[in-house]
Amino acid sequence: MRGDAGAGRLAGRLIGLGVTGSIAAYKSPDLVRRLQAEGADVQVCLTPSAARFVAPLALEALSRHPVEQDVLALLPDGRIGHIVLADAADAIVVAPATAHWLGAMANGLAGDTVTAAVLATSAPVVVAPAMDGEMYAHPATRANVSRLRDGFGYTIVEPEAGSLASGQSGVGRLADLGMIVDAVVAAIGNRPIRAPDPGSRPPVVETPRPADLEGRHIVVTAGGTAEPIDPVRYIGNRSTGRMGVAIAEAAFARGARVTLIAGLTSVPLPAYARVIRGESTAQMRAALLATLSGPSGMAGFDALVMAAAVADFRPTRPAESKLTRGGSLTLELEPTPDLLAEVGRVSRGLDSEGAATRRPLEPRPVLVGFAAETGSLARAAGKLHAKGLDLLVGNDVAEAGSGFGTDTNRVTLFAPDAEPEPWPLLSKRAVADRLLDRVAALLDERDAARQTALMTTEPADLREPTR
Ligand code: C5P
Fold first, then answer.
1. What is the pLDDT of residues 170-199, one digit of tens each?
2. Is 237 a catalytic residue?
3. Whose CA is nearest to atom 21 of ligand 1?
4. 342: Cβ below 6 Å to ligand 1?
5. Is pTM, for the whole model, over 0.90?
6. Which of 198, 274, 309, 248 is nearest to 436 (CA)?
7. Which end of the chain is less congested by CB atoms within 10 angstroms, N or C?
8. DSSP H/E element including 156
9. Is 221 exposed, middle or buried (0-12, 13-18, 19+ CB in 10 A)?
10. Domains of the chain (ranges, CATH numbers)
């Protein structure tokens, strides 16, 4: 059985699987796998009674999408789950479909996520009924099936004859799963993929990550900086620290030793990390530079993820005592030092003019920046090069569900000599884990290259000095 999405008759397709409350619901995990084996991405909707026959968790774990169960619940980013599925699915298959569900659907009663998604979709719909033989033969059921097939144009995969859950035999057993998959393939035909952009598809559940950062020291900055105007006032920004804390949390979960340099934050700071407060740009700079160099010129950390929203300007001369109310006030601002660019230079042994005047840090830390933009990420790639970064996460903070104070983020990853990679809307934790996948890979590459370099230089270095 193939599990990859690159091959198969449903490659790249999103299939909605509606499961309703027949005993045959126990077959639905197998149906998810079979659709996936054809390359499909599968999103499951369950009616409340189906959830008594099959565990939602099993379907979530298999499909890698949270299961849609509550017609009134919203997705974490505020979208309506069954409408997202209705709009994005290449087909919706309802298997098994109960007599009750057929009746509800025939009358457009959208009381559960399965009926609601089917009612709202313009994609092909495939229905595989399963129930007791007498129920299937009842004129009410026959009429509902006819309405779905002839009135709505749905494909009906007829149930089979055989022994039923009641112990009787009759026509009512869920059709063979292979036939249901074939019917989905046929119903879609050559239609183009409706929603190739993962961002317009239902949210994904991330896979748990291994402890691939064990032995690494990761420094994360989080929150916004506060640039003093006087002893009580400051210039700040809307950063809450949520993204940085999510990265710290993910890094810790993957085995890293974590230092969190926190500006102004409005989320709880973790107990598992060493937390250094650096509220102004100057304090954050001091904390970073103190952390950057370890003993005997070694790098003090393996990677820096600079998720903090550092001010670009600060009052040139903060007042020493509280400014009093009066007429208008003009503040003179000066540019702040670019902390990340400075860390980039120090790591490479460069001075502020870009001249190699000191030893580069060994091993060179992996540097990751964040670029918050409004409206376009056009400037992000330039920042990657200007600051000497290994990775830059660009995000449009003006977009709904993205940026400050939200639980989700839609970002684009920039890396040198690679096309920008737009990621779908993800939870901040999922963004953190995907980003750390890349950081872990870069650290492994760095170590492998260093090992090779050491092996090739060792003989000369180990030669006995001639007297
Ligand atoms: O240039 P811009 O502010 O968009 O760059 C964003 C990245 O640079 C972020 O990772 C931010 O933490 C960092 N930065 C910095 N020092 C500054 C301004 C931004 O390190 N003064």
1. 889 999 999 999 999 999 999 999 998 877
2. yes
3. 338
4. no
5. no
6. 248
7. C
8. strand 155-156
9. buried
10. 14-200 (3.40.50.1950), 217-314+332-456 (3.40.50.10300)
